[in-house]
Give the backbone structure.
Amino acid sequence: MRLTQKLPPKGRVTLIDVAGASERNEQRGRGAISNQAGRFERHTKEAFYDGWGTVETMAPRIETTLTREAARTIITYNRSPDISFDRTINPYRGCEHGCVYCFARPSHAFHGLSAGLDFESRLFYKPDGPELLLRELSRPSYVPKPIALGMNTDAYQPVERRLELTRAFLKILSDHNHPVTLLTKSALIQRDIDLLAPMAAKGLARVGVSITTLDPRLSRRLEPRAAAPHRRMQTIKALSDAGIPVIAMTAPIIPALNEPELEALLESAVENGASSAGYVILRLPYELKDIVHEWLAEHYPDRAAKVINLLREMRGGQDYDANWFERGRGRGPHATLISRRFRNATRRLGLDEPRPRLRTDLFRPPEGPDGQMRLDI
């Protein structure tokens, strides 16, 4: 089996003999199959099976490492018209959940790292983030709008149990009545119900739980360190029972893989208390297309070509189309079919009601660096 990647200009290839595709996949709890070089690297590598089985020892276990990131600001703003929020906080870069489909994987290339195994094992965290948040919220020019917490990578990935950065951000937002939204696939968010429930009662908090499949076997392959499907449904119920509005995000929808479960996912979410829903078609920007194609060939060779061709059909023949409003929905007959199925299911289940706007009028800014309270007129 030969793994190929488009080379950077003037790049060269280093060939590495490996004992076969199964040898590369012995990293338990990891999603990506390999560690292909990032798109900015001058040199890249190509792994191939030479047929001799010359590698006799197992690959060394990949341990997770943490690197402190000295951030200068903590709130990131965006102007994308097809995204429902204009600002976000990401406590971490990289994500140990190892979801093979994660659209954030290519961002690791900016660190000179791979979007493959590096993304899920070489993590960055922002210990100064809470202090920066207090400073930014206290600026006289700051205008409050909901902050989306952990939209690039999961704010409740496993390392959060120890570092509690996400909880520190939530505590600040809670103390100052600042609206917040979260999206996670982790049961760890239940730890922070004591903060989220009072905020939701004031109209300040809303949570999205990402659900991809009800099949535990598919989930282990697709998102190896994320919460199991039944744990995510339990999380929806726990949040809903606490009075916190929950959005069931069926994302990403992968044609011919988890797509057949669309209605079953929404039905299970409703049974556990979800109040609204959303969906996104799998996106494959930059290196992610190679990672997903490789993963499909390894785990689902019987349908890999079908999945890839259906995705391309929804992207005008390309692996990815970055056009606003189409990048998350696709176009063409199959995209229309998915849209209609989702619309019909949400209407039938009562998940199509408009989401209430989060309040901003309760915001009370922290003291400025000089101890002076901000004067609001």
Remarks:
- The domain at 66-349 is CATH 3.80.30.30 (pyruvate-formate lyase- activating enzyme).
- Confidence is low (pLDDT under 50) at residues 1-25.
- The CA atoms of residues 26 and 59 lie 7 Å apart.
- The chain is about 30% helix and 15% strand.
